[in-house]
Amino acid sequence: MTLTEWLSLVIICVMGAMSPGPSLAVVLKHSLHGGMKNGMLAALSHGIGVGFYACASLLGLGALMTQLPTLYQVLVYGGAAYLAYLGIRILLAKPSSQTLNVEQTKPSPRSALQDGFAIAFLNPKLAVFFLALFSQFIDPENLTLQVGLIMCLTVFVLDTGWYLLVALLTDISKKRFGFTKTNPWLEKLLGVIFIALAVRVVITL
Description:
Transmembrane segments: 6-28, 40-65, 71-92, 113-137, 143-165, 185-203
Radius of gyration: 18 Å
Order of helices and strands: HHHHHHHHH
Oligomer: single chain
Pfam families: LysE
Structural class: mainly alpha
Keywords: Cell membrane, Membrane, Transmembrane, Transmembrane helix
Membrane topology: Multi-pass membrane protein
Protein name: Amino acid transporter LysE
Distance between the termini: 33 Å
Number of helices: 9
Helix content: over 70%
């Protein structure tokens, strides 16, 4: 892989990571409700999930997904169901009371890790995307371990780096504009957004 080819891969991966969707919503949710630490944990686990699909695509999972539409659909519907679950959980949550300890109402770091990874893992479109993307840069018959590692690490670092930046900027914005208290209307809006994203996933299947 030449430097020009690698830079082209970087640009495409950055554009893909920056596109708004369920992943951004999850990182924002944990950054707003759990703080920068939880947002960054969600970003890290999401990057691991995306990196998994990048590596798996090089091993043939992307091609397998196209040959097994049932498996592909099961994962897509699973992702939509998870998004709907997150939205419903937010909508049904009781408003935070001023008498409650704020730390007790924060999402746990474990839930941040779980949500970040699940949103990536339950998105088999990533496997197909990386299959199509990588085929533009490499010949599968001449793929070396070094090139494969470079491509997978590039995907992981760029995806994780972007969402770490999102978590950081969200935390800075909260402090800058005084969004330190839980806003019930903002929470409900976030819940509706998750459900709308779930519907969009099913419709665009």
